[in-house]
Amino acid sequence: MRDVSFDTLAVHQSIKNKNHFTSKATPIYQTSSFSFKNLYELESYFEGETPYLYTRYGNPNTDELGAAVAALEGADAGAAASSGMSAILAGILAVAKNGDHIVACDDLYGGTYHLLDAELKNFGINVTFVSFANEQEIRDAICDHTKLLYTESITNPFLRAENIQMLVNLAKEFNIATMVDNTFATPYVLQPYKDGVDLVVHSATKYLGGHSDVSAGVIVGSEDLMQSVCQKIISLGANLSPFEAWLTCRGIKTLALRMEKQNKNAQFIADELKQNAYVQKVYFPEKVSKEGNGAIVTIELSSQCDVHTFFASLGWIKIVPSLGGVETSVSYPLGTSHRTLPPEAQEKLGINARVIRISIGIENPKEILNQLITAIETSLN
Ligand SMILES: *Cc1c(COP(=O)(O)O)cnc(C)c1O
């Protein structure tokens, strides 16, 4: 382009090489849209022969993320979304519409509880919350309009490992769909799609990304169902940005390494804290899978401990209202994730001022333990 002026050159300087110089890492396709040489090429997009048109409709980086998680979960197809919440919303709206009903577990992530309890009403979708520990309670809640059973594979913050097979069988009996949030377990520990769950959703903000530097969601399922989920993501504008998708894919490359270490560390911390006289309860699931039991440990401090002092005495362990990063962090369910729950619901679940959720990282396990024990001992009245 030597025969054009500076003005024209300035806007047309981008690299024309489509081979990307055989870059080992996937390039970031930080583009809002894709260009076409002629109208035949444009037409070929609508015939399904050219993959990309406009980033909200699809982008190589978000596709790479959806496909990566689908492969790890053993599902046919996957899609990225702007957050865990938008992936959950897109999944729900793909199976439930105005007039439909959902039966959901009563021990859910606070944001999901609020979406199901408050927002879905405005779409004309009603939700009944029951304890999923009890099959009869779920059966009793199912009605003619029920379209979906919704839960988390490991619940938050009390880490009950859900009986997925029971849910799948129940859903088959009533011909309704199942959707499971697999954020806490990750596909390293559990793969609910392989057990027959229809849609599996992740807050990739947590373990999939793994480095606390991205907000993202992913949803996987069958080819058919994922077509409607993708349409929802497009229509709701819930697409993920290419850069965030790229960061999440980068995180996933070390998922197995991180989860192996974090699961082992968490098992060690849970076992040790069970021996501690000032820890009244340790919530940590058992026998979730042969790969481990996840990397979250929830504890209830004894009444001799001052909770404010505990949180202020944690040294390099930060207070973070999230989980799943490589650094150990603590969160306060009563003050953050479960803050919006009505007091009766908090009490029923067992959430009180002394409940602390610990997201175990990849540090030296003895040093994590020492830091926690120092904080507990400092907090004694
Ligand atoms: C964080 C979280 C969500 C919400 O995900 P965002 O990425 O924050 O939108 C949903 N479910 C679980 C279990 C979570 O931990």
UniProtKB/TrEMBL annotation:
UniProt keyword annotations, A-Z: Pyridoxal phosphate
InterPro entries registered for this protein in UniProt: Cys/Met-Metab_PyrdxlP-dep_enz, Cys_met_metab_PP, PyrdxlP-dep_Trfase, PyrdxlP-dep_Trfase_major, PyrdxlP-dep_Trfase_small
Pfam families (alphabetical): Cys_Met_Meta_PP (PF01053)
Domain of life: Bacteria
Cofactor dependence: pyridoxal 5'-phosphate
Family annotation (PANTHER family): TRANS-SULFURATION ENZYME FAMILY MEMBER
Family: Belongs to the trans-sulfuration enzymes family.
Protein name: Cystathionine beta-lyase/cystathionine gamma-synthase
Lineage of source species: Bacteria, Bacillati, Bacillota, Bacilli, Bacillales
